[in-house]
Specification:
alpha/beta; five-stranded parallel sheet; Rossmann fold; SGNH hydrolase-type esterase domain-containing protein; 238 residues; 10% strand
């Protein structure tokens, strides 16, 4: 009964329905008007994401039901892993990363021409915190990601959005405009704190509103309490 918004991305998307998460905030904001559908895959880069694209967005669904209102595409944090670090198996070169974003955006636009497609850049990186929170053995003692590398991928994401004619949230730039951004927004040098999730939510909402997706333009999907006649309640359901 309700239109959908898909959230497609890596662990920062997969964790977004946690306590204080940006995906949970979207679901709460659009309660009774939109189903916010989580499609987050921890550790994935754009190469892997495009490999499973048709499983995430089956062709039958795109043809047999209403197109979603929007799809967020939030990858790059894993693509930007250093090619000589312990997470090198996740690394995707920046040129391929950009091509993969183009391919995903093109595929989504072809399936659902009227759907708002929103790219989100990777966040900035706190390298010291990454050393304190490795997810695998790290014999080199060096961070597996750097903020400089994340910035290069963020720039490529912004460029891809411009070339595809779709909106983008430049999270890498936005977060670093704030003092003490690394401690305020990042829990382990990569993933988001409650405040970091709030930034993503607010920036995504801005882009949705600019694209005409707002509560003022949506309807609740069954009679609301205020419209139910106290003397004849069932009349509202006829």
């Amino acid at each position: 009964m309700r239109p959908k918004i898909y959230l497609f991305g890596d662990s920062i998307t997969e964790q977004s329905f946690g306590d204080g998460g940006w995906g949970a905030a979207l679901a709460n904001h659009f309660a009774r008007t939109v189903d916010v559908v989580l499609r987050g895959y921890s550790g994935y880069n754009t190469r892997w994401a495009f490999k499973v694209f048709d499983k995430v967005f089956p062709a039958a669904e795109s043809g047999g039901s209403e197109p979603p209102l929007a799809v967020t595409v939030f990858f790059g944090a894993n693509d930007a892993c250093l090619p000589d670090g312990y997470a090198a198996f996740q690394h995707v070169g920046v040129d391929e990363y950009k091509r993969n974003l183009h391919s995903m955006a093109s595929s989504l636009k072809k399936r659902w021409p009227k759907t708002l497609i929103l790219l989100i850049t990777p966040p900035p990186i706190d390298e010291d915190e990454r050393l304190r929170h490795p997810y695998a053995e790290n014999p080199s003692g060096l961070p597996e990601r750097t903020n400089e590398a994340a910035g290069a991928y963020a720039k490529a994401c912004v460029e891809a959005a411009g070339e595809c004619g779709i909106p983008v949230v430049d999270l890498w730039t936005k977060m670093q405009q704030y003092p003490e951004w690394s401690k305020a927004f990042l829990s382990d040098g990569l993933h988001l704190t409650g405040e970091g999730n709030k930034v993503v939510f607010e920036e995504v909402m801005k882009k949705l509103n600019e694209g005409g997706i707002s509560l003022g333009n949506l309807r609740a999907d069954l009679p609301v309490l205020a419209d139910i006649d106290h003397g004849d309640p069932l009349k509202a359901f006829q």
